[in-house]
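This entry is retained here.
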Amino acid sequence: MNRPYIPFKYVLSAVGYSAADNMLVIKHDLKKDFIMPLKANRKVAVSEQAKRDGQWVRIDSLTLDPNTTQEIYLESVDFPLLLVKQVFTNEDGSIGILYLVSSDMSLTSQDMTTIYRKRWNVEPYHKSLKQNASLEKSPTHTVTTQTNHLFASLCAYIKLEWLRRATKLNHFALKSKLYIAALHSAFDALRLLQPIHLAA
C-alpha cells in the first residue's frame, strides 16, 4: 500500500524524544535533519577527539554565550551536532535556559530558535484535541470505531476553532460555556418532566 508523502525538512521534538536512537533514525533512515532540546545534565564532548578520549561534560557546565552556536558530540551519535543556548525570561520573571541541538550544521542560532519555535503551535492543538474534543476518552476497541472517534474529535476541534475566531474565546472558555448551557437545558427539561404539584 502506498502511503501519502508529507514533505518536511526538520523534525522538531520535546526533550523526552531527544534520545540518540531517535537522532540516528531521523538522520540516517529518514535522511532528514532535526532540532531538539537537551536536558542541562546531558553529557557532551566538545570535539571529536574529546569524544574518542571519553571526555564528557554536562551541557550546563560549558561556557556558552547565549544565541551563539557550538559544535558538540553526543555518545552513540556518529555525527556532530550544533548546540545553541537560549536564555529567556518566564512570565513569573524567572530566567529560563533552553539548550537546542541540530543535525544541520549550516544553521545559525537564530535559524534554530525560529524553526524550533514553530513546534509550539502543535502543543495547544494537541492539548485542546485531547481535553476539549475528547480524543483521549475514546471507548472504542476496533480500528474502524477508533478511526471514527479520531475523525469526530478532529471535526470537534475544527468547530471549536471556528467558534474561537468568531467569539475571541479560547477553546477551554468555549467548552465551559457549552457545558453550562447544556446543564441549563437539561435542568429545564427535567423541570418539565416533574409532576405538577397541586395545592392541598
Notes: The CA atoms of residues 135 and 151 lie 9 Å apart. The radius of gyration is 25 Å.
